[in-house]
UniProtKB/TrEMBL annotation:
SUPFAM superfamilies: Thioredoxin-like. Coiled coil: none annotated. Residues 6-217 form the DSBA-like thioredoxin domain. Pfam families: DSBA. GO terms for molecular function: oxidoreductase activity. This is Thioredoxin-like protein. PANTHER family: DSBA-LIKE THIOREDOXIN DOMAIN-CONTAINING PROTEIN (PTHR13887:SF52), GLUTATHIONE S-TRANSFERASE KAPPA (PTHR13887). Transmembrane segments: none annotated.
Length: 229
């Protein structure tokens, strides 16, 4: 009998570092499964909501100018360095992430509401499809992260019937309080940065903060598996 380990992945859908971590972690999960078909541990991914910028409006504002003002001292030079670094990290993924820096930065509460609802209703694979689509749309296609169009498209790409996706997305109150409570729980647990990834172990949990390399995620899974016997 194998040990079922939940990997709790705390994210925000407009955080580039969580996109990197998500892509690296999913790559690690695939590589680990291929290399360890008889592993004593089986890993399952669960998404936990967190808002880095809860004060940002749902309508939002221009992403490039917002980042330059709020995070890089209104400096063109610092923004050039940031975009160069993120671009390099993105190209290092397999397949590569083609980061773009235009578009709109906006409130992510509705995105989290959608992820949490369909994760609960449809399961891990659908939730992963939604998360992957939201990241790609925001970071690579410069789509609005809170628009109904973006949210419905993410659900449909993940296999949710379009009518079901539209009905949920358009009802802005369904699942709202549960999502807010989940975010509040993370704040109370002392989470102040994402990605925050917790590998649940039979003997102990292992927490990793920040976007780690693929090999580090694999080594962590190895440790969890070794302690599962």
């Amino acid at each position: 009998m194998t040990y079922d380990s939940t990997i709790s992945f705390t994210l925000d859908t407009i955080c580039p570092w969580t996109y990197l971590a998500y892509r690296r972690l999913t790559s690690a999960l695939s590589k680990y499964a291929d290399a360890n078909p008889s592993s004593p541990a089986t890993f399952h991914l669960k998404f936990i909501p967190y808002q880095l910028y809860p004060e940002v409006s749902k309508e939002g504002e221009g992403k490039y100018e917002w980042y330059k003002r709020e995070k890089y001292q209104d400096s063109d030079e610092l923004m050039r360095k940031y975009t160069a670094v993120m671009g390099a990290y993105g190209r290092g993924c397999s397949p590569p992430i083609h980061f773009k820096f235009g578009g709109t930065v906006a409130n992510t509460l509705d995105a989290h509401r959608v992820i949490q609802h369909f994760q609960e209703e449809k399961g891990e694979a659908v939730a992963m499809g939604i998360v992957g689509s939201l990241y790609r749309q925001y970071f690579e296609e410069e789509r609005h992260p809170a628009s109904e169009e973006t949210l419905v498209k993410a659900c449909v790409e993940a296999g949710v019937p379009e009518a079901d996706a539209k009905a949920f997305v358009e009802d802005e109150y369904e699942g709202l309080q549960e999502t807010k409570m989940a975010i509040s729980d993370q704040n109370q647990n002392g989470i102040d940065a994402v990605p925050h990834v917790v590998f649940e172990g039979k003997r102990r949990d292992i927490s990793l903060t920040g976007a780690k390399e693929v090999d580090q995620y694999i080594k962590t899974m190895d440790k969890i598996a070794q302690e599962s016997g």
